[in-house]
């Protein structure tokens, strides 16, 4: 029995020595991490703190303080490393580190660090999306802005710029949806301006294809969001082509109201006069032909119409 007791005491003594050595090693790891942190080597410091934490968790109660210190600093280090990646525009690595920060900070009860990381993530994604948009990688930019809205559904700027990216990429349906969402979130003026321009560009495409019905549809959509002289002129031209004279006159008159000093004012008046003439409204046709009798381009024809065809008073 005595021999057994002696052996047990020896085993306990040996275990105590081993525990002390392990604690010493864990502390050395922690101190190495601290020194590397002081020297600015965040990645190196993180490795040592993680090793110290792992060893500390195997030690147990004797390592509680070391464990808590490691858990306090490790999420902060991940966040700082994320910021370092942001500085060199390495978005993928920055996002990975931010997500790791959020995960660990939540596990370790580091509320403030988790909040800071959560606020940083959409900012990083927004900046990356902006770089893609500026470099004309429109489809990629749209997806990047979409990632922002998945984190911050109320981010009106992200929705607005997503619309711009989709529009430039030719995804009209996606652009309209994004712009409408931006408008709902308080960006109505900017969204309506962008929507108006989007449909104006579609009207121009239709004009080049001589798709006059498409011109009318898109020009009217453009005007519905924001009245503009370019869309009114396109609407007037397409309506004249399709013999919708009343619509053409209204559009051309709106164009002149928005552009009273337009360089092509006499041409527009000629088109209005022609529309009235084709409608059989000679009185109004006379009024507009008289306005351009002195024009070097349209004057001769206008004078002929006034004096010979319409016999205006």
UniProtKB/TrEMBL annotation:
GO cellular component, one term: TRC complex
GO biological process: post-translational protein targeting to endoplasmic reticulum membrane
Protein keywords: Repeat, Signal, TPR repeat
TPR repeats by residue range: 156-189, 229-262
Entry GO MF terms: molecular adaptor activity
Signal peptide: 1-20
Listed transmembrane segments: none
Family matches, as InterPro entries: SGT, TPR-like_helical_dom_sf, TPR_rpt
Annotated PANTHER family: LD24721P
Name of the protein described by the UniProt record: Tetratricopeptide repeat protein
């Amino acid at each position: 029995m005595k021999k057994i007791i002696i052996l047990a005491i020896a085993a306990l003594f040996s275990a105590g020595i081993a525990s002390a050595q392990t604690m010493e090693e864990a502390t050395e790891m922690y101190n190495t991490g601290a020194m590397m942190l002081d020297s600015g080597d965040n990645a190196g410091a993180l490795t040592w703190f993680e090793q110290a934490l792992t060893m500390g968790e195997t030690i147990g109660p004797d390592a509680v303080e070391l464990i808590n210190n490691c858990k306090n600093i490790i999420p902060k280090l991940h966040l700082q490393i994320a910021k370092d990646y942001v500085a060199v525009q390495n978005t993928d690595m920055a996002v990975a580190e931010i997500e790791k920060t959020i995960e660990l900070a939540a596990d370790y009860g580091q509320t403030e660090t988790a909040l800071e990381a959560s606020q940083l993530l959409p900012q990083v994604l927004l900046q990356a999306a902006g770089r893609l948009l500026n470099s004309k990688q429109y489809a990629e930019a749209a997806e990047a802005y979409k990632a922002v809205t998945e984190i911050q559904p109320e981010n009106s700027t992200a929705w607005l710029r997503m619309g711009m990216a989709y529009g430039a990429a030719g995804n009209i349906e996606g652009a309209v949806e994004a712009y409408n969402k931006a408008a709902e979130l308080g960006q109505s003026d900017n969204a309506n301006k962008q929507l108006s321009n989007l449909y104006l560009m579609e009207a121009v495409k239709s004009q080049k294809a001589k798709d006059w019905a498409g011109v009318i549809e898109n020009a009217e959509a453009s005007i519905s969001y924001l009245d503009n002289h370019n869309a009114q002129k396109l609407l007037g031209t397409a309506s004249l082509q399709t013999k919708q004279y009343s619509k053409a006159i209204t559009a051309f008159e709106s164009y002149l109201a928005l552009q009273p000093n337009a360089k092509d004012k006499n041409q527009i008046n000629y088109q209005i006069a022609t529309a009235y003439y084709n409608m059989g409204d000679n009185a109004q046709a006379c009024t507009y032909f008289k306005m351009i009798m002195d024009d070097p381009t349209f004057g001769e024809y206008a004078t002929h119409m006034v004096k010979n065809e319409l016999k205006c008073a």
